[in-house]
Here is the input.
Amino acid sequence: MKQTLAILGLMICSFIATAQQKATELDKSPMDMTYFPANYPILKMNGKAKSEPFARVIYSRPLKNNRPIFGGIVKYGELWRLGANESTELEVFKNIKISGKVVAKGRYTLYCIPYETKWTIIVNKDTFSWGSFTYNSKKDLLRVDVPVTNTDDVAEALTIYFEDTAKGANLIIQWDNVKASVPITQ
Here is the structure.
């Protein structure tokens, strides 16, 4: 009986030792987060936040690495996860409007269908998805077309941030020499 218990104990210890997760390697496309208002956590920590945040975006930042981006690795007319790895997530802390269309307080994923002169931005209700592999258009909350512009500066890493406006903010999406602006109001 003692031998059986000892063997069983060794088997359990062996299983536990091999089942422990190892640390992951540094990702090539690090995850980042942007708030509106900008730097909200720091404002709150310093007692300077006037209210709850308006929104935040959590996304992975792929790098250009001398590759052609739009029309290259990001195909025109095809669904793009608007980043790398997990789908880009939009969390809104109050009801807002994107291009005049209502988005209720909650968490969503963002996708994009890029074209040369415009992008179709998609707000989707399916969260916790990786990439666009399980994208389901039936879960789209809204789609809006926004113009894109070419910039003089080249953004090596995909960059998403909020820019103040008189009526709210623009969600700026910039990568390579392309920039899109998505208007957000309350």
Summary: DSSP finds two helices and nine strands in the chain. The radius of gyration is 21 Å. The longest helix spans residues 2-19. Helices lie at 2-19, 40-45.
